[in-house]
Amino acid sequence: MRLFAALVLLLAMVNAQAVDLEGDQLARYHELNAELRCLICQNRSIAESDAPLAKDLRTIVEKQIAQGRSDAEIKQYLVDRYGKWVLYDPPLDSATLILWIGPFVLLAIGLLVVVLMMRRRREAPPERPSLDRDRLTRVLDEQTQPTDSASSKERS
Amino acid sequence: MMRWRLIVPVLVVFVLIVLLGYGLTRRPDILPSAFIDKPAPAFDLPTLASDRERISAADLKGSVTLVNVWASWCVACRAEHELITAVSRRTGVPVVGLNYKDTEEDALRWLGRYGNPFAVVAFDPSGAVGIDWGVSAVPETFVIDAEGIIRYKVVGPITREEMNATLIPKLEQLKGADS
């Protein structure tokens, strides 16, 4: 995670535009940019993107941080305009519920299946096929000396 | 028991197919708008090619309006230009243009060359109003009812099919509700 943050910071610096923030505010600026999705390039954050819109959004983030707005307020400002889609870290609500609990539900189902299978195996040890010597001889006899009646029985 | 062994995998595969099919047929480049059924965001901009000095969100109230975000550098806007004109002519709904990140000179030249379908054009060279309206790329078209509420939005150039199947019926319906 720290490595990722460092990479993001490095990237942000590479395509840096002049930002009038310092210290804590600058760190927040880079962090926020990495968490906001570029609307046009879709799979990049606004920190990574060179699209004009991403640049505009970075400027908005910068201005609002300078005005002393909180991270939550800035995110809300963008969500109001572009929808939750703009957030890379979707908030937990009714629309994203499946997204958040889905993996755990699947995990629970998987565990349940495993437990059931293990219990069944323990309760019913695999049956050893019992050897019915009479039947065995009968079948072998039929195989070695096929009669008309036997073959017609097989077919039916 | 044997039956379950057969049914479960088939069921799982079926569910997977449905989910993958859903994923394939969705258009990820068309984002749901955050503005449907919300009031048109406030703005106050100078105009282009109009007697009016300025236009604001308040001017959108009173009748059903189409707001079309466009720019002279936008190729897709050129493509939908004819259809925007047709929608306005067929429904009688005025189109307010929002000229986005453009220069006055280029915008006026574009209107002069291809014809001006707009009742009035708001001029937003910085794109600041575009951001307030949640515009991600031009063109975008908003349907606004008489109360100034956004009722529908088309992202990207409108097509003839979409115009006939959705846009015009939507406008007629809103006009009907208005009168």
Structure in a nutshell:
The complex is a heterodimer of chains A (156) and B (179). By secondary structure, chain A is mainly α.
Question: Would you write up a description of this structure?
Answer:
- The complex is a heterodimer of chains A (156) and B (179).
- Chain A is mainly alpha-helical and 156 residues long.
- Chain A has two domains: 2-86, Helicase, Ruva Protein, domain 3, CATH 1.10.8.640; 92-124.
- Chain A has seven helices and no strands.
- In chain A, helix 2 runs antiparallel to helix 3 (52-66).
- The longest helix of chain A is centred in the last third of the chain and has 27 residues, at 97-123.
- The N and C termini of chain A lie far apart (69 Å).
- Chain B is α/β, with parallel strands linked by helices.
- Chain B has one domain: Glutaredoxin (3-Layer(aba) Sandwich), CATH 3.40.30.
- Chain B has five helices and seven strands, in the order H-E-E-E-H-E-H-E-H-E-E-H.
- The longest helix of chain B has 24 residues, at 2-25.
- Chain B is elongated and about 80 Å long.
- The relative contact order of chain B is 0.19.
- At the A-B interface, helix 3 and helix 4 of A face loops of B.
